[in-house]
Amino acid sequence: MALDRWIAIVILVVCIAYGYTAFFTMDELLPPIMRRSPIWPSSFPKVLAVGGIVLSLAIIFGIEKAAGAGQNDIDVTRLGQYKFGQALMLLGLMVAYALLLRPLGFLASTFAFLFLGSFLLGERRLLLMATVSAIAAGFIWYLVNEVLGIFLSPLPLFLN
Amino acid sequence: MLEGLLAGLSTAFSVTNILIVIAGCLVGTFIGMLPGLGPMSIIAIMIPIAITIGDPSTALILLAGVYYGAVFGGSTSSILINAPGVASTVATSFDGYPLARKGQAGKALTVAAIASFAGGTIGAILLMIFAPALASVALLFHSAEYFALMVVGLSAIAAFAGTGQVCKALLMTFLGLIMATVGEGVLFNAPRFTMGVMDLQSGFGFITLAMAMFALPEAIYLVLDPNRSKTGDGDSGEITNLRITRDEAKRIAPVIGRQSLQGFFIGVLPGAGATIASFLGYAVERNIASKEEQEQFGKGSVKGVAAPESANNAAATGSFVPLLTLGIPGSGTTAILLGALIALNVSPGPRLMIDEPEIFWAVIISMYLGNLVLLVLNLPLIPYIAKVLSVPRNYLIPFILFFTLMGAYIGQNNATELLLLVGFGVCATLLRFADYPLAPLLIGFILGPLLENNFSRAMQLYDGMAFVWERPMTLALLTLALILIVLPSYRRRRARLRAAGVADGD
Amino acid sequence: MKMFKKTQQLVVAAVFAAVGATAQAAPVVDSVHFLIPGGAGGGWDGTARGTGEALTKAGLVGSASYENMSGGGGGKAIGYLIENAASNHGTMMVNSTPIVIRSLTGVFPQSFRDLTLVAGTIGDYAALVVPADGDIQDLNGLISAFNADPSGVAIGGGSVPGGMDHLVAAMVFQTAGADPVSMKYVPYDGGGATMAGLLSGEVQAVSTGFSEAVELAKAGEVRIIGVTSEERVDAFADAPTMKEQGNDTTFVNWRGFFAAPDLPADTLAAYQDALTKMYDTPEWEEVRARNGWVNIHNNGDDFRTFLEEQEQVIGDLMRKLGFL
After folding, report:
1. Which of A150, A151, A153, A157 to mutate to test the interface with C (most CBs of C within 10 A)?
2. Which of A150, B258, B273, B421 has the largest CB neighbor count within 10 A?
3. pLDDT over threshold 80, residue B304
4. Which pTM does this prediction carry?
């Protein structure tokens, strides 16, 4: 089955869960004073849930005729040729960055991210990579923290 | 009025002030290019500096320069790397980025610069002439009218609902609206749909979503397909295509004119600002364009860049109207500017024009100056800015990824946002694989809260839905929305009928 | 422009050094790290940076740094401070009335009792405001209009239902003998939109912070029909208090500083000392005046008593309205 139908199924499930919360759980928690109003916190979500369910069903059942070529320039039939490995590793690197940013501090994490990022993509000029990453990390930290005054913890947590 | 104007001119054109405007524009542009730092945060940061200057006119001129610079800088990242860092430049990326991909980044940036200049300048002229009268018009808008205006804004998604994609576009819009309901709301005593996760209490962040929906999938596509050109075939990064052809200039001129007016009036309304103006501008221009031109929208139409850019600059200027004439901040940015004004001992309000005309006029002249300086400074810089795209892929990609991460992190220091960023980015990439248009999701997300809040307020005040038909302006706006949605398919039908030889009155 | 701040700081430092040790006492605290539970540019942010600016310029504190940690309506920063208490003795967190309200409603699992209370430093009274040229001219006029037609009188405010603006208006109504539960409260997205709603005639009155209303009142656009202070406020002495109109409602939206739990007593004393001395400095006065803040100093135990009282009053009202 085409990818867009799978996605529509996922969205359908999300809408059903959302709608369930809106229709059955939200209203019990509403204090009496707010029940006097003609519109409740759950009103809009209810409408949206119904709309979402109807539309995702429409896509699943192929009610609409798809047009010719998609506006998309990744050819889904040539999926095997694309560099998924690199993409996944980079995404993993981003997750690692998010988790390590505080413990390792901004300078170390950013340096590692930029260095490893270019490495993963195939760059091998280690000295150039290291220099660029270090300068970038340092410059941005300086710009943001010193000049703009927005705090960015530079050093690892245990040194602070 | 004339002497006030002359006084303002002489103040604005002093050497100090001109230097300050230039400095402000440069700083603003540079910082505005970094996603995550929008005009609001930048102005907040510059306020202590501005206050140190002491002289209210000079301080305001500095802040105006920074503001316009930031708005322009935001368009730059929208066009070059599809990373709209500011809500008001999201619409610019719809056509700006495709142009960059075709190797015409320089052209897109130039159109954006000129459109912004025109929008801001026309806005300043309108501000000057109509400010007091407009204030009273703005106050005619109640929640019901704002709601109707948001519905008109939603009609912008029609631009992304090409043949065979109507259901998908609508579903994405609903998904965006659904995501907007997560978290605290203005109207409700407790956060909704947070599932107990504390970080969701304020809902999803706009920057996080914008980065995840626009910048990340692009970056991931760049990784997936090393042959995917960043700048179009055979261009090798040479951005020579700066000049706008005469034909293009003729086409965008009316767009700029219309959208400057429309954007300005939308900006005047407190509660509607540059973002809505840019979406509406895009939607309206697309809907009134000829069929062939309509097809171009979303694929790299210069009109598609000119419309939101004029609209958002004109709206930014328009949002000064409630501030200067009523003392009410009409948007987040003007709220911060209001704080700055008070700190400088300037009390905006109806008395400002009378009591301290030189400040009022200095502000207005500074807007002209700011716009002019931006154009003059940035046009020559565009070729160099566009060169960013010719950085080698191995370095460009980690940097883009880093910028999207920073955009979501700066000013909030919240690592969970980063995880959400990656998660949403993956989802967005999958959606793109499956041909779902992403822009409607973001539009739904941005307009959702305004739609719901104004609707709910109107219902509370009218104890029901009577406001839809009892208020003429609401009815008029809703009808307009309907027309804008139906117009394209109506015209398509007529074209088909005409082609089949069955046309009325032929 | 980027050099401005640094140059300015250097100049200030040089001046201090030049004037000599006799003029400036040694700093009470060497360095303070301000933790701000909200984003850059918000109210908490402005308070922390303004306080830090005054403290450093006056030489009471050697240096100050600022960290924004938004999330969870402030809960994230509170949680962070409590969890990392041991390494955060140099940190002061700014906060205000919402910490009381949100602990009551359970939005945060913690409350102010889990933190060390340093001091409440500034406050903003609340006010009820009407259009200058409207039918309603004073507090009693508002109440009688309400009693005549409860659903025809809408009170706007910048906070959510059950939030500060709503509670203040409800308090005033309750004291006046009107039913706070049937009061129609219409929430807006912040002070600016609220005022727009008032001036456009969409709502008949608004409940907002006094300092927000003062500018417009001075311009003659609106009329402040009541302030929740004990006596008339200097910033705008034309505004009558609730009390003098026979309505004994007082309320202060305070802002103050907290520190990590189990803070050593001498560090706490140093912070409190620095803040107390700050009030007498011209640097503080400049920051205060330009922001329109009112000095309301509640140190240490006074602060605790104040918070507990406010918690009681707010809790009772929320229970009555049904929010709790």
Report:
1. A151
2. B421
3. yes
4. 0.83
